[in-house]
Amino acid sequence: MTHDTAGTPAVSAGPATGPVADFLAALAGGGIEIVDLTNRLDSSTPTLELPAPFANLIDFSLETVSEYNEPGPFWKHANIHTGEHIGTHLDAPIHWITGRDSHDVADIPLPRLAGPAVVLDFTGQAAADPDFLLEVEHIKAWETEHGPLPDGGWVLYRTGWDQYAADRERFLNADESGSHTPGVSAECAKWLAEETDIAGFGVETVGIDAGNAALLDPPFPMHHYLLGVDKYGITSLQNLSRLPARGAMVVVAPLPIVGGTGSPARVLAFVPKQ
Ligand code: MN
After folding, report:
1. CA of 189 to the centre of ligand 1 (A)
2. What's the 59 CA to ligand 1 centre distance in angstroms?
3. pLDDT tens sequence across 74-125
4. Domain 35-40+84-272: what homologous superfamily?
5. What is the distance between the alpha carbons of residues 253 and 268, in angstroms, rounded to a whole number?
6. Could you tell me the pTM of the whole model?
7. Closest Cα partner for 47 from 62, 38, 60, 37?
8. Alpha-carbon span 83 to 264, nearest angstrom
């Protein structure tokens, strides 16, 4: 690392000026913090559990092939076994029947996966009622205080549910009447899909719909409406408490699985430090 005469950090191989140089200078100088919004992946990572007769995906696991031993004396490597919709993951349009003719996870245009993020904090409501559903009026009240939802950006719905992400039972919060985790009403899902220009919607829970969204009309309305209009979902986010209501940028990075309906994704937020 070298420094120019103004004291601004400069990367020797990079451009001296321009928007990327400014961004890199802010990163190097501590003006921008990177926050990881991703749940760590292992065999205990909580995943959606559909009731019978529906079929579930496999959990994530590692299968060691070599470990500095006879099959590979100098190296260690493993096969990964995983469903597409495991841990922090992206839902692509073809995941849902309403989006079946749209993008797979490999074909999503990159500008839709990097952009501004806003955080809507409904932690208090979700703590009081685990079946809390976000309504259009909640978002409009948020917009009155914080400004409009960002065109081409991501709405991140904070419910405090990330505190349970290491405890599968608590995270899914299921009993004989279903799974009780917060979500979005059918009317609000339709509004987000049809009346806004957001690229996607992120949640802290195991899926983008409420735990009991099979009972809504239509069933699983976030999947139904959002994926049907080429908007995307991201689940099992962490650390939204470290983001401002607006002003952060997110990069959502799913694997480009050809024909994939989704993928585990690394989600990074770039947050201006005050
Ligand atoms: Mn999914």
Report:
1. 16
2. 13
3. 999 999 999 999 999 999 999 999 999 999 999 999 999 999 999 999 999 9
4. Putative cyclase (3.50.30.50)
5. 8
6. 0.93
7. 60
8. 9
